[in-house]
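We were asked to recover a plausible sequence for a given structure. The inputs and outputs are reproduced exactly as logged, with field labels preserved.

PROBLEM: sequence recovery
POSITIONS: 484
GIVEN STRUCTURE:
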């Protein structure tokens, strides 16, 4: 196949759909006979994934790798920031945590030793560029994703992921704007106008995303946008509701269901302040027998059939908040009344007898009693467990992955007592035997015959078809093979 330039999907802001469009491009290039791979130099997200080597990357790049038909690798997301508070993040470099960093120090004074870093400064730019170079030597093309808005000019000198990365990669940039949120003309024009002359030349096209209504109504707008920006509009992609791709940003949580429903098994996911890996519940959410919703309303928790305590990036902080807002008491009371309680990762730790943090790994809280539903004690440790796992449940082989800080005093991958299940395994609820076990006696029927893997493949193909219909791929290929 022809060697294609790397292509970067950059955005006018966060949550404009860059990740999903990048996944679509990965699948389209694969369908067209290429060997693509995703890349995002720096990602900020609490939804992460374990690679086959047992290292950690952002969930979006794992999804994009699936769409590209290849195993995920840390080179696809060499730098991952996992927020722990409004001001600090855990820094994961090449799949391994290297300490916590204050946001100001990270963005403005990277050489400063803080939060577990060695005294010599880490050259993050060199690290992410080396990761890209390794990836580019093996795949064609590289589908790059920017982060947030490309017009944060106050952070230009320290930007590792947007136009400076595109310059290193010699990538062609496609700007994605979200028309659904409004102001798309200003955001697209402003994003281009604020670039340096050199970077402006890299922007070869515009994709308008999340369009609702009659597409013909935007024909004039499309021409006007091209006139004022001097850049072609390569496509206008309609909003969709019937294609399901794992989402990474917590922004998508705002669109999740929040209330009980009649005639279905009501499953309440307790809404934590630092919730992570909420994609754990996507399979349950699409099960027609289930109404899965997110809440911290104690009345709704008490009335649910099943209660799930999800993963969190701050177990002790969220455990304290559960006690303050009454959710902890509501969960214990519901369990006593026969409701099933499931804890995943940090939620599993909270269901135990005690969570301790003597070394201040998470923060200033040294220990708190758990909800007391499982006979485990957990101690936070600097060492992080990240691995893919195979496990047995109800006599069948299942799969998942672990990403967690802290160790519990049990070797069991799954702990089960009367009406309560706890596990460190993400993806636990993606397995049909687990879902059928939870819903047994509550509803008729079983999980759909189609496997999760087949279902995901179908979604990637449908996404690729949707984008092909509304983006000029011939123009994209011309851009990616024409020397500037």
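RECOVERED SEQUENCE:
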């Amino acid at each position: 196949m022809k060697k294609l330039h790397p292509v970067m999907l950059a955005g006018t802001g966060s949550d404009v759909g860059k990740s999903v469009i990048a996944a679509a491009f990965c699948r389209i290039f694969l369908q067209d006979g290429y060997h693509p791979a995703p890349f995002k130099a720096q990602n900020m997200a609490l939804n992460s994934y374990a690679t086959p080597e047992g290292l950690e990357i952002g969930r979006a790049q794992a999804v994009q790798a699936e769409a590209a038909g290849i195993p995920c690798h840390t080179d696809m997301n060499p730098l991952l920031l996992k927020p722990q508070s409004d001001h600090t993040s855990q820094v994961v470099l090449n799949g391994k945590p290297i300490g916590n960093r204050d946001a100001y120090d990270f963005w403005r004074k990277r050489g400063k030793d803080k939060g577990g870093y060695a005294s010599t400064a880490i050259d993050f730019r060199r690290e992410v560029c080396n990761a890209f170079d390794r990836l580019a030597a093996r795949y064609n093309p590289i589908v790059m994703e920017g982060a947030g808005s490309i017009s944060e000019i106050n952070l230009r000198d320290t930007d590792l992921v947007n136009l400076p990365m595109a310059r290193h990669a010699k990538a062609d940039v496609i700007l994605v704007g979200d028309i659904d949120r409004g102001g798309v003309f200003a955001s697209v024009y402003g994003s281009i106008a604020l670039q340096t002359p050199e970077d402006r030349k890299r922007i070869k096209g515009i994709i308008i995303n999340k369009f609702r209504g009659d597409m013909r109504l935007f024909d004039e707008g499309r021409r006007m946008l091209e006139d004022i920006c001097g850049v072609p509009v390569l496509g206008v992609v309609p909003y969709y509701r019937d294609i399901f791709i794992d989402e990474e940003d917590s922004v998508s949580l705002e669109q999740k269901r929040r209330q009980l429903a009649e005639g279905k098994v009501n499953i309440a996911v307790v809404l934590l302040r630092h919730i992570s890996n909420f994609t754990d519940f996507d399979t349950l959410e699409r099960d027609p027998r289930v109404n899965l919703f997110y809440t911290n309303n104690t009345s709704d928790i008490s009335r649910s059939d099943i209660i799930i305590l999800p993963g969190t990036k701050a177990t002790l902080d969220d455990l304290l908040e559960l006690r303050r807002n009454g959710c902890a008491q509501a969960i214990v009371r519901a369990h006593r009344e026969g409701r099933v309680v499931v804890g995943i990762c940090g939620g599993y730790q909270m269901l135990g007898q005690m969570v301790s943090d003597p070394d201040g790994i998470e923060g200033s809280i040294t220990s708190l009693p758990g909800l007391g539903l499982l006979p485990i004690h957990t101690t936070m440790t600097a060492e992080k467990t990240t691995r893919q796992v195979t496990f047995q449940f109800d006599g069948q082989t299942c799969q998942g992955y672990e990403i967690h800080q802290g160790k519990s005093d049990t070797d069991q991958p799954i702990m089960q007592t009367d009406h309560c299940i706890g596990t460190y395994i993400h993806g636990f609820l993606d397995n049909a035997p687990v879902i059928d076990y939870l819903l047994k006696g509550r509803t008729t029927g079983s999980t759909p015959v189609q496997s999760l893997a087949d279902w995901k493949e179908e979604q990637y193909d449908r996404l690729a078809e949707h984008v092909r219909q509304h983006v000029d791929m011939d123009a994209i290929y011309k851009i990616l093979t024409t020397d500037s």
